[in-house]
Input
Amino acid sequence: MSASWTQQDRVINFSARLSLVLSILVLAIKFFAYEMTKSTAVFSDAVESIVNVIAALVALFVMKAVAEPADEEHPYGHGKLEYFSAAFEGGLIAFAAIAIGIEAVRALIHEKVLRQPDIGLYVMGAAALINLLLGLHLRTVGRKFRSEALKASATHVLSDVWTSVGVMGGLAIVHVTGLAWIDPLVGVLIALQLGYSGYRIVRQSIGALIDEKEPKVLRELVASFNKAKKKWVIDIHQMKMIRSGRFHHIDAHMVVPEYWNVAETHEATTEFEKEVVSAYSFDAEIAFHVDPCEKKYCRTCEMLDCQIRQEPFEAVRPMSVETVVRGPLP
Output
């Protein structure tokens, strides 16, 4: 591990390693269940687990790269690699969905006889339990440390749990009723569910790669603005954000009293930035473009002792996502 890694980086890296080890274990368990049952649904679930192993391996390498600090060639850090990792995983899931769907349709046409579905139930139950515990762990760590790669892996692993539960349900029905066509039908349903899951992960990752607006993140940032707001922060607008994993670079225009000199403005905006970042749950930096106040801001300006006021003060206008991302007041 790099000496520059924080405790947060070490926890994320451990989670990625744990995901890889347990994904390999679950893969072995599921193929054992397939050998015991020759079930199309179990085979479909096992193919999905191959994706889990590949994705966990990719995530492990990505986590190592992401943990490295920003440098001259990568001034915003390496965080966007997380989105590539998540998109890659989503693509693998979609590919697995197609392969599973083709095999399941074949099995529907050419009906196969299941062997020992009762044993398959127990084995698949063990695999589902391992994945459930792993998925909950990855989701907790991913949310706590804002890791897109771990959150994508958690989404996939937890969806795998429901897939396994569906497979177990199909095996149980076949075991009780003897209706062998139920098994490949479950395989088709698994393919459809995986296809949707893969699409959702890829869609979210592409949005992050092109810095699409994320309403939840914007609301949190605006809440930090409001918490740190001083009476001289007359307005903030034209805010833009570059997301690089856990690090965010923020650009915004800030309106301050026009009679302030450069030194006053620098000192005040620097202190305001520190307070905003400390209240924000991501690592961040903010670059403010400072604008002098104008008459149109007088009615919402709290600088009541202002010597150049041209309109009476009426009321403070709280900042919102809409006001912060829009242009200046007309």
About this structure: The chain is about 65% helix and 10% strand.
